[in-house]
Amino acid sequence: MGVIRLGFDPGRHKCGVAIAVDQTIPYHSVVAADGMLAHLHELFAQYPFQEIIIGNQTGSRDWAKRLGQAFPACSLVPVDETHSSAEARRRYWQLYPARGLTKLLPLGLRQPPRPIDDIVAIILLERFARRCSGSALPQAFPPQAETAP
């Protein structure tokens, strides 16, 4: 198994997390901020990540401090998350194509039926991978197929 990385989209009320192992995303979810550290400790038991790729916007300083204290052996790597929410909204509809009348709405007017912070975390991992490798791949880590929520 290669390097395991945690993608982390920080937030005040909820956060997105994704695990990257080599070129796959075996896990991603949105978790309430107040239960995040406990969730990450459970996740670490299954996927012992060595690096935490964290978005650099809302609440990132506070979360970086907390994550650094909770996981002192992990490297914290900030990644620019400019426009990541808009990118995640588009990605959501690629992963879970619209059905019914929603298909008739222009992409810019569609709202995903669930929080997409986990998809933002995946995008942060992809941005990090492109920055490290210089790769121009549009999706370095395509999520594993799952059913729409």
Overview of the structural elements:
Residues 136-149 have low confidence and may be disordered. The chain is α/β, with parallel strands linked by helices and 149 residues long. Strands 3-2-1-4-5 form a five-stranded mixed sheet. The protein starts with a strand and ends in a 16-residue tail after the last helix. The chain has one domain (4-133): Nucleotidyltransferase, domain 5 (2-Layer Sandwich). It is globular. The protein is 34% helix and 22% strand. 32% of the residues are buried.
Give a brief outline of the structure:
The protein has helices at residues 36-46, 60-70, 84-95, 117-133; strands at residues 4-9, 14-21, 24-32, 51-55, 75-79. By secondary structure, it is α/β, with parallel strands linked by helices.
Main beta sheet: strand number and arrangement?
A: 5 strands, mixed
Low-confidence stretches: 136-149
* Principal-axis shape: globular
- Estimated share of beta-strand residues: 15-25%
Labels describing this entry:
globular, 5 strands, alpha/beta, about 150 residues, Nucleotidyltransferase, domain 5, 4 helices, disordered C terminus
